[in-house]
Amino acid sequence: xxKGKGExxxxxxxxxxxxxxxxxxxxxxLRIAIYCATRNFPxxxxxxxAAQMRRAAVSITANIAEGxxxxxxxxxxxxxxxxxxxxxxxxxxxxxxxxxxxxxxDVYLELESxxxxxxxxxxxxxxxxxxxxxEKEKR
Length: 139
Prior knowledge:
The protein contains 4 helices and no strands. With 139 residues, it is mostly helical. Helix 1 (22-38) packs antiparallel against helix 4, helix 2 (49-68) runs antiparallel to helix 3 and helix 3 runs antiparallel to helix 4 (105-138). It is elongated.
C-alpha cells in the first residue's frame, strides 16, 4: 500500500483517492448537514456561531484529504488528529446551538450522531494507518 493510504474498501482493494475513504464520506455528510442546519440561524450569528460551525465541518474533510495526500504515514496521522479535533470542536458548537434553540433537539441528535460516527471512523483510520506504518518499518 502506498504512502499512508491505510484504508481499504470492502473488496480489499487499495484506496486510490481520498473520496473513496468511508471516513471522508461520512465527514462530508456531516459537513453538508451542518451547512443545511446553519442556514436558518439568526442573522446576528451569520459571522459568529454559524461560521465557526461551518469552518469546523470544512476542516474535518479538508484535513482528511490533506493527510491522504501527504507522503508519510505520520503526516497522514497528524492531519487525521487535527480532523478529529475539529469534530470535537464542532460537537461543542452543536451543544451551543441547541442550547440557544437555533435548531430542534432532533436535528441536534442527528448532527451529534454524524459527528460521533466521524470521530469513530477517524480513530479507526488512525489505528489502521499506525499499523501499516509499523508493518512497513518491520520490512
